[in-house]
Amino acid sequence: MNKRGSALLGLHSLLMMVFLYLPILMIVLYSFNNTRLSGSWEGFTFDWYLSLLDNRHVKEALINSLSIALVSTAVSTVLGTLAALSLRTLSRRSRGGLNGLLYLPVIIPDIIMGLSLLVLFSQLQLELSKLTVMIAHITFSLSYVYVVVSARLANMGRQLEEAAMDLGASGWQTFRHVTLPQIAPGMIAGALIAFTLSLDDFMVSFFVAGPSSTTLPIYIYGQVKRGISPEINALCTLLILVSVILILLAQYMLNRGKGQKKQKALPF
């Protein structure tokens, strides 16, 4: 590729980065604005972050979001890992069909997912609450955990497990000392992704949340309808910061798992 083509590609990449991240930078910048008027800059302050500590509604929404994210992450990590391990033992034809079903929550639009779950809960006469939000988050988080753990299992191969079995290890010993340490980085990365998705989810939660199960994204949406304030910008900035940290940790765990080429000696 000539220099002109490289320069055009570089310019295109720069413009895309500006298009994607400039709105986020504006939210972060105006979260420190020393006025409630979002259109003018009046100075730098941390007051809006401090005011979040005294906001009862923000605390309630934060507790709801964290409790829902923790429970849904734990359950989806276990179920997603078990699904990846189970499908690994099936034939390629059977595994292909079930793979499609497990990928479906990743592919379909969130609004369809939320509406379908709302219809399901209404048919089951299940009252909308934190429980319904947890079930909904487990439904889509499970697929992401499955994808990450399956990729880890595909790269792992079966040589070490077969060697452990040849050396007299039982099925549980093989899983505990060989399989689990190998897939642990994928499990942790999948759990971090599931936690991030649960914490940031709005669309699905909006459909299945009850009056006493308002999450932070739903609370932000309700406040924005009244007007964007620096306090909301501060809350959004904190959510962005937490999300970025969790995604970086997930990526670190995935890279760490890929970089572990040297295997430990089998303990048998």
Report on this model:
The chain has one domain: MetI-like (MetI-like fold, Orthogonal Bundle). 78% of the residues lie in helices and 0% in strands. With 268 residues, it is mainly alpha-helical. The protein is globular. Helix 1 (3-30) crosses helix 11 and helix 3 (56-88) packs antiparallel against helix 8 (171-200).
Compute the average pLDDT.
Answer: 84
Write down the domain tally.
Answer: 1
What do we call the CATH homologous superfamily?
MetI-like
CATH architecture descriptor name: Orthogonal Bundle
Q: What is the CATH topology assignment?
A: MetI-like fold
Low-confidence runs (pLDDT<50, min 5 residues)?
A: 261-268
Count of helices? Answer: 11
The overall strand count is 0
In the CATH scheme, the class would be: Mainly Alpha
Instruction: Give the N-to-C terminal Cα separation.
Output: 55 Å
Shape: globular
Largest beta-sheet characterization: none
Global Rg? 23 Å
Query: H/E element string?
Result: HHHHHHHHHHH
Strand content: under 5%
Q: What is the helix content?
A: over 70%
What key attributes describe this structure?
transmembrane helix, disordered C terminus, mainly alpha, 268 residues, 0% strand, MetI-like fold, transmembrane, Bact_Polyamine_Transport
